[in-house]
Structures are given as C-alpha cells and as structure tokens.
Inverse folding.
DNA sequence: CTAAAGATTGGCT
DNA sequence: GCCAATCTTTAGC
C-alpha cells in the first residue's frame, strides 16, 4: 500500500489526482474506506467561494492555511461536517472538498454510523451511504476533532494510492455545488467527478 | 451584543 | 420541488 502524498500541487491538480484514490478511516480498530468519486477545488484568497477569500483568517478556517496534506474539517448548518484536504504551501489557503465516496470496506459500520447520527425512516442503500460531503463524514465518524490532522502521518485517517489510476477522459467537471453566493466564481468548473458513477451526490 | 447565513440533508407535497 | 432542522461562525452596530 502506498499512501497518497502529492498534496503540494495546486488545488485543481490535487482534486483531479484524488479521484479514484481510497479514503481510509480507522474507527474502533476497523478499516472504513471508500473510493473518492467526487471532489471540489477551492482556490484560495482570490476565490470568492473559498473560506479563505480575501485572506479571511479565523479560528474556524485556520487549518486551511496549513501546508498541503492536512485536513480542514468544519461544521456546516449546525448539523453536518465537511472534510477538505489542504493543498499547496503553507499560507496558500487552498483545499479540496471531498464530496462523495464509493463505499468499499466496513459498509455495515458506516451504515450504523449514518443511522445513529440522525434517525432515518427509509432504508439506506449503499449508494446513499457516502453520496455527499455531510454523509461521508457521518459514515466515517469524522468531526472537528480531525481538523488539522496530517493525512501523511495520521494513524486514523489517510488516503491510499490505488494501483490503477483513473483515465483522463473519465473525469468530468461542472460548477461547484451550493456556492451561489460567490458570484462569477460560482460558475467556474471546479467540481470534478467520475463519469457515470452511481455514488455521486447529484 | 444581535442577527443572518451557511461548501447540507431528509422528509413531505 | 420546497422547506425545516440546528447551531456555529461571522459581520455589523
């Protein structure tokens, strides 16, 4: 197994390279994992959709200024957590949001985590497990405690390099989701996902 | 101090 | 397609 460590590139490069790699979380001594199938790039201080826009620096987004390879985890809508991988050099404020996974290992545990957090009435299918940024963090029990975690050193959260890389022409791009407040930046094709994949958020 | 909004999700019409 | 849930963060006064 090779750990993925190429986090120092720009966010778009990292975003594209992360597709097809495996996010691994050790939870209660068990390996939970999934293939990354959907991501979004946030380009830093000049990107109106990024939390670091205009150099904004607060307690919440501080870890987004760490060197590439660290996690930036924040709570959204008071309910969900979102997992980002910081890119570039220290101070860049760039990151990639992990938006969806194809569940691979310990699906039963991830299912339990999903149902446990909030009561769901309908039965959860495999494609409902990690098909959104808030869903995958709930399935993998990732919260603010992981903010600033080093994905190159951590023994509970990291990314593994798959042997076979994703074909260039199977990567599709679109505008990012839920960033309408960002004006022209909302239109930039900075969401990347695997074509025809069943496990996407939308 | 107060208010408003948010890189979402699930349930209901 | 619409809307509530739920609460932290941030901007503004």
């Amino acid at each position: 197994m090779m750990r993925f460590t190429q986090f120092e590139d720009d966010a778009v490069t990292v975003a594209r390279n992360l597709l097809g790699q495996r996010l691994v979380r050790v939870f209660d001594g068990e390996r939970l994992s999934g293939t990354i199938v959907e991501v979004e790039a946030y380009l830093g201080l000049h990107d109106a959709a990024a939390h670091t826009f205009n150099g904004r620096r607060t307690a919440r987004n501080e870890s987004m200024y760490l060197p590439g390879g660290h996690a930036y985890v924040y709570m959204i809508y008071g309910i969900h957590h979102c997992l980002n991988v910081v890119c570039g050099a220290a101070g860049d404020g760039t990151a990639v949001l992990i938006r969806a996974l194809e569940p691979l290992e310990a699906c039963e545990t991830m299912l339990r985590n999903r149902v446990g957090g909030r009561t769901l009435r309908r039965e959860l299918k495999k494609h409902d497990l990690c098909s959104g940024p808030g869903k995958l963090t709930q399935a993998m029990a990732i919260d603010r405690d992981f903010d600033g975690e080093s994905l190159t050193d951590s023994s509970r959260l990291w990314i593994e390099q798959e042997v076979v890389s994703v074909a260039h022409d199977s990567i599709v791009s679109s505008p990012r989701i839920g960033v309408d407040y960002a004006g022209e930046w909302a239109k930039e094709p900075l969401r990347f996902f695997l074509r025809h994949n069943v496990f996407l958020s939308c």
